[in-house]
Design brief:
Elements: E1 17-22, H1 28-33, E2 38-42, E3 53-54, H2 61-73, E4 80-84, H3 86-101, H4 115-138, E5 141-153, E6 161-166, H5 170-179, E7 182-188, E8 190-198, E9 201-208, E10 216-219, E11 229-230, E12 237-239, H6 242-251
Parallel strand pairs: 1-5, 1-7, 2-3, 2-4, 4-5
Antiparallel strand pairs: 5-6, 7-10, 7-11, 8-9, 10-12
Helix pairs in contact: 2-4, 3-4, 4-5
């Protein structure tokens, strides 16, 4: 077959690769557990209250590699793989490098000078390669969960400002953001208002919009407030639940929904755990 005969025309309807990050307890894992036939690869302890299938808690990078190889090579009926979470997985990557180089800190790997973070990217690329294999060869949806942090962003055009981003080293965040089809920030709707703080001062307080401290939502478009993106032309804001996310994908003109059936129910939005 010639190269011209291998040209693909039109859109590819592959399962999505999602990076969902947010604060502790917002409902990331519960949302992922409502995906079609999910299997979790846990790198942190926190699935006890969630009904889901999972491998044993990974305490070494080799455990994660073994779980991925099992899903790639062995027969199973899982349709979604969930890494929970990327920031704890990053610690396993660092531990593996420290063991390899006989040091006790990622800063000291291969003589230091930030070489450890560069070596870590090699492990991450292998992990993402295995996840791509599950997506492309086994037809699995891929979900990577992460916690959020507030970082100072040095904007070259404006003054520096704070924003939410995944709690990962900046090089890993860049790699995952480029790889993912959608980077979604899980948060709550809030409003701020100013009130009298006494002694001629004012203070700003925040209040949640909706019940339970504020409606839980996914932000799908990047802004000065958070890192986010999507390749599906999704609405800038959707409810934090798997059915709501799938509904938005189905309605999208760039839809990949044919590859991922919706599952679960809307109650996951309000009963979410971490």
């Amino acid at each position: 077959m010639t190269m011209l005969q291998q040209i693909h025309r039109g859109r590819r309807h592959n399962p999505p690769r999602l990076l969902i990050y947010g604060t502790e307890g917002i409902g990331k894992s519960t949302t992922a557990a409502a995906a079609p036939r999910p299997i979790f690869i846990p790198t942190e302890d926190g699935l006890d209250q969630i009904e889901c299938a999972s491998f044993p808690l990974a305490t070494r990078l080799a455990d994660v590699d073994a779980a991925l190889r099992t899903l790639i090579q062995e027969k199973h009926d899982f349709e979604t793989v969930v890494i929970d979470s990327a920031d704890w997985l990053e610690r396993l990557v660092w531990d593996a490098l420290c063991e390899q180089y006989g040091v006790n800190s990622i800063e000291k790997v291969d003589g230091g000078y930030a070489k450890g973070y560069t070596h870590a990217l090699t492990h991450w690329r292998k992990l993402l390669g295995d996840l791509n294999t599950l997506r492309n060869q086994r037809g699995m949806c891929v979900i990577v969960l992460a916690h959020a942090k507030v970082e100072k962003f040095e904007d070259p055009e404006f003054s520096a400002y704070d924003r939410y981003s995944p709690r990962l080293h900046k090089h890993v965040t860049a790699l995952l953001t480029e790889w993912a089809d959608a980077v979604l920030f899980a948060t709550r709707k809030i409003i701020t208002k100013t009130e009298d703080g006494g002694f001629g001062r004012e203070r700003t307080i925040a209040a949640g919009l909706g019940k339970d401290g504020g409606e839980r939502i996914l932000r799908t478009v990047g802004s000065p407030a958070c890192v986010a993106k999507n390749r599906y032309d999704l609405p800038a804001e959707i409810p934090l639940s798997w059915p709501a996310l799938m509904k938005a994908l189905v309605a999208s003109p760039m839809s990949a929904s044919g590859a991922v059936p919706a599952r679960g129910n809307e109650s996951a939005t309000n009963n979410s755990k971490e």
